[in-house]
Design a protein that fits this description.
single chain, alpha/beta, 2 domains, ten-stranded mixed sheet, 23% strand, binds nicotinamide-adenine-dinucleotide
Length: 368
Amino acid sequence: MANPSILILAGDGIGPEVMAEVKKIIGWFGTRRGITFDVTEDLVGGCAYDKHGTPLHDDTMAKAQEVDAVLLGAVGGPQYDNLDFSVKPERGLLRLRKEMDLYSNLRPAQCFDALADFSSLKKEVVAGLDIVIVRELTSGVYFGEPRGIFTEGNERVGINTQRYTESEIARVARSAFELARRRNNKVCSMEKANVMESGILWRQVVQEIHDKEYPDVQLSHMYADAGAMQLCRWPKQFDVIVTDNLFGDLLSDAAAMLTGSLGMLPSASLGAPMANGRPKALYEPVHGSAPDIAGQGKANPIACILSFAMALRYSFDLGDEAARVEAAVETVLANGLRTADLMGPDGGTPVSTSQMGDAVVAALDASI
Ligand code: NAD
């Protein structure tokens, strides 16, 4: 059988720095676990614009459609701020998401014990937290028509339209139920069915998909504003939360920050299953290209490493190996190793990007 394939798009700023640490781990799997990935690398974002005049070359797009998983670092930088909108670095990432039709965005909020003091919430509220928000990513109010700023009488009116079809809701609901089955079998769906028709339909369709296809999963519904409150009050009551594009945008950012640094947050964007049964998938850290620290060895590579762990779990059915990587991260943090963004109340041993990556590899070595 062919090796699983990965396209690495390290991108700009700290992207290549954090991706270098992931490459060490990919190499470790080949030499120590006999799991070899076929890795190709290409350009995205500002570096692609510099070479090709476009933030994503058509050949790169075609490669992304063929591999089992895309791993992306970050795109953007101040030197590209004045480019025309159509060739800005972010357009490369948006094109990938759109053409791969990545409708299901998984944003875990996981609190490693060693970092529980980093949260703005009390330690007992966040310690051991492990939830995932599934955000619908390709429809809803960010895409619905009509949209625009129009003139009505003698004033302007800004219009966006919240629009969801049944099939758009159904497919992201399935994605959340599938995920819950691999975890603690619990889904909470959030909308505003009390004031929005799209919310009423959302609730109906999620319930129907549940009853027909996933009756074994525990399903609850919550209004999104109450959900936001509950996330801050007692987030550990949740396992998987599924919600639309707009609410998911807000709730996933809020949930992510429960756990501390931006340098710790991975994400996955999944689409429909390919011929081999694996979903189309792009994995990336939540953070950007951090131009303020790029090239200084200060970036925390853990978000990117944990994104690779998500790829192991969701694209390659290697859940045990994903857990091994996560445990290795837990170990280095428990041992007090800290990149600059993690230096907090407990002090710790300052390490560079590459020292952090080496420590994770050493912890992986110790795990076998
Ligand atoms: P950012 O995430 O790049 O940085 C915000 C702050 O967090 C900075 O102080 C940065 O130093 C710090 N930070 C981020 N990641 C870190 C890490 N791994 N380790 C340690 N510290 C880290 O967001 P920004 O400053 O708003 O944007 C910078 C550039 O990145 C912009 O061009 C923006 O458009 C782009 N961006 C890209 C993505 C993406 O590629 N998905 C996401 C957000 C922003």
